[in-house]
Design a protein that fits this description.
Layout: H1 3-39, H2 41-52, E1 53-58, E2 65-66, E3 72-84, H3 92-103, H4 107-114, E4 121-128, H5 129-137, E5 143-152, H6 160-163, E6 165-166, E7 172-173, H7 175-179, H8 181-184, E8 189-195, E9 201-206, E10 213-216, H9 220-236, E11 239-247, E12 254-259, H10 277-282, H11 285-296, H12 299-302, H13 312-322, E13 331-333, E14 336-339, E15 342-345, E16 355-357, H14 359-364, H15 368-378, H16 380-389, H17 416-423, H18 432-443, E17 447-449, E18 454-458, E19 464-467, E20 472-475, H19 479-495, E21 508-516, E22 525-533, E23 540-549, H20 558-574
Parallel strand pairs: 2-10
Antiparallel strand pairs: 1-8, 2-3, 3-4, 3-5, 6-7, 8-9, 10-18, 11-12, 11-23, 13-16, 14-15, 17-20, 18-19, 21-22, 22-23
Length: 635
């Protein structure tokens, strides 16, 4: 046997096998390379590009929201975003340790992001600017500190239901912030860059376009005064719901709108101001969300109810305008009307009625009997026509999200009983903003204006992009009818049921409302007052509703009329309407009587305690040194 030849053959076989394996490996590598070059080239090209090129968004500043006088009520605070660029980090252990300590983050979390091979990894957003500046000053290689914006509300709780707030990504939630979100948002810029062969960053920057600024109709001083009085009422008396609107009846501008409670715009998801820690701990996430939505809800535009006797001026105006009654015509009230077998009582039922009275007296005494007679004389078709013309049963178009429509009868659903009860404000449901807009048309000469909370939208360079100067929608009644109603309503305050609404030195007009809630017989009422100043030239309309005041006997509009008087006493001078010269010295409003909202953080309980003080005006930048001036009273 040739041992030498056998070994050679075996050796050759081994070489052949090895060669085959090498060939297979080479073919596999070539195949993989071809696969990567053809099918995965874009992926790996992008990975390589990310390591050598940078592209970052530059956030645009969200537009400011100003009050009617230029005070800033929604602004931006500069915050920082801390990030790392992997291929620039030279001392990863130092970067990890410092960022973990400065940002209060677990070291493992920072390490994971720092060691990740990506063009940019965000470590933390919304870092306070002072801390961001401190990290930038350390000059850690590979660590970037970019400035961003966070929404800030200088007056905290003031106007929260109107202004709204922003989510963490600066998207508007509720109020003006939501309705005008697209206008307030700017257009982000871009920062493009790449690393050259010396690893120097070469950049090109497209600057951002900041958002538009909004001037609202809200007067922050009027709003603050209103909220302070609402807080006081809730503390001393309380109610299930409470809302108030103060507006200009001549153009639909809302000076103030509040529904209790307001909330802290800088911390809108904080439930601790409304619930105890024990109650919050027991809430599920779903329940917490439900409760927050109740707090954020704007009662003045989102809730419908039966208005009661504050609706009567609209019925009287319609009848005068249609010629079915006159100011001299006499009516007899015996305390009730029987309609299709249903006895519908007047407030004076127990004493045998109001007797013989005219339409002015029917408003002064809030007589349901006469209003039912007026409704019958006007007729269903005309009554429904005026209900529509006054804006009930449909949205007013106010520039806020969440507006309800209320519920009114149609030609098919309104019969004699429904016509009778609707004439004095029962049976149909309305919203506060519908009532405010309709009543304004009754007293302003007959013109219906679309209510609104934004006056104009301006670009960053102050060009007017949008304006609500012309908010006239239609004429509802004549000037002559409007003048008569102003006189009737003035007498209602001077001599009638609205007497507590008087304000010394002013001619106030208005109408009370006391609406029993369903189911009836339980003693639950919604009391209200709707009024204006002054009689001959209405410049201010006020509407207040108090839903189920926390008292044993709820059926008294005095709670609403007294509240209105107290608010107007401070608000009218702030709006430049002063007491007449015949006002007694003891009745004059002094500057010290008027407390304006502060831009300091809200104290516990809002601005109703002793820390509520006169504010230094914070404007849009044109008058940064202004200080609120004392409000004079007429001598």
């Amino acid at each position: 046997m040739d041992i030498k030849g056998g070994n050679l053959t075996k050796h050759r076989k081994n070489i052949a096998v090895l060669g085959l394996l090498i060939a297979i490996a080479v073919l596999g590598l070539l195949g993989r390379l071809v696969f990567l070059m053809i099918f995965r080239s874009e992926h790996y090209s992008q990975m390589a590009l990310e390591l050598h090129q940078r592209e970052r968004s530059i956030k645009a500043a969200r537009g400011r929201i100003l009050d009617a006088k230029g005070k800033v009520i929604a602004d931006n605070r500069t915050v920082c975003t801390i990030s790392v660029i992997h291929n620039q980090v030279k001392d990863p252990e130092t970067v990890i340790r410092v960022l973990s300590e400065e940002l209060g983050l677990p070291e493992a979390e920072v390490r994971k992001k720092t060691e990740k091979r990506s063009s940019r990894e965000v470590i933390q957003s919304n870092v306070e600017k002072t801390r961001g500046d401190a990290i930038r000053a350390m000059r850690l290689e590979g660590v970037k500190v970019d400035e961003d914006y966070k929404r800030y509300y200088p007056y905290s709780t003031v106007g929260s239901k109107v202004v709204g707030f922003c989510s963490t990504d600066n998207t508007g939630v509720w109020g003006i912030e939501s309705k005008y979100n697209s206008s307030l948002n700017g257009v982000s810029g871009r920062r493009y860059g790449y690393f050259n062969t010396d690893l120097d960053l070469v950049e090109t920057v497209n600057e951002p376009t900041n958002g538009n600024n909004i001037t609202s109709t809200i007067d922050v001083n009027v709003q603050g005064i209103l909220e302070r009085h609402m807080n006081t009422f809730q503390k001393n008396t309380g109610s299930k719901n409470m809302g108030c609107i103060i507006m200009n009846p001549q153009n639909g501008e809302i000076y103030a709108m509040s529904s209790y409670p307001e909330y802290n715009l800088n911390n809108p998801r904080d439930l601790s101001a409304f619930y105890s820690p024990e109650k919050i701990d027991k809430m599920s996430d779903k329940k917490k969300t439900e409760n927050l939505n109740k707090i954020w809800r704007n009662y003045c535009i989102s809730d419908a109810y039966e208005p009661g006797s504050t609706f009567k001026p609209m019925t009287v105006a319609a009848c005068l305008d249609e010629g079915v009654t006159t100011g001299s015509r006499a009516y007899h009230c015996d305390g009730y009307q029987v309609i299709n077998g249903v006895r519908i009582k007047c407030v004076a039922y127990s004493r045998g009625g109001h007797g013989t009275i005219n339409i002015c007296q029917s408003l002064m005494e809030s007589c349901n009997d006469v209003l039912m007679q007026l409704g019958a004389d006007l007729g269903k078709r005309k009554f429904l026509q005026y209900v529509n013309e006054f804006g009930f049963g449909k949205k007013t178009g106010i520039d806020l999200p969440g507006e309800a429509t209320g519920g009114v009868f149609t030609n098919d659903t309104m019969h004699a009983v429904e016509l009778a009860t609707s004439s004095f404000g029962q049976g149909q449901t309305v919203t506060m903003i519908q009532m405010a807009a309709a009543f304004s048309s009754v007293i302003n000469g007959g013109n219906y204006y679309e209510p609104h909370v934004v006056k104009e939208v301006k670009s960053e360079n102050r060009a007017v992009l949008e304006s609500n100067d012309n908010a006239l929608v239609r004429r509802v009644i004549t000037e002559n009818t409007s003048k008569k109603l102003r006189n009737y309503l003035y007498k209602t305050v001077e001599e009638g049921t609205a007497l507590p609404a008087k304000v010394a030195g002013y001619q106030i007009g208005g109408k009370t409302g006391t609406a029993e809630k369903h189911p009836t017989g339980r003693g639950n009422y919604l009391v209200s007052f709707i009024g204006f100043a002054t009689k001959d030239n209405p410049e201010v309309m006020i509407y207040v509703t108090i839903d189920e005041p926390h008292v044993a006997d709820q059926a008294h509009s005095t709670y609403a009329t007294q509240f209105s008087s107290e608010v107007l006493k401070e608000v009218l001078p702030v709006l430049g309407m002063y007491q007449d010269s015949s006002t007694k010295k003891a009745d004059k409003t002094k500057a010290s009587d008027i407390k304006l909202p502060s831009t300091k953080e809200a104290p516990d309980g809002g601005y109703s305690d002793s820390t509520y003080s006169v504010a230094g005006d914070q404007t849009d930048g044109t008058d940064t040194a202004n200080t609120a001036s004392p409000v004079p009273s007429a001598e």
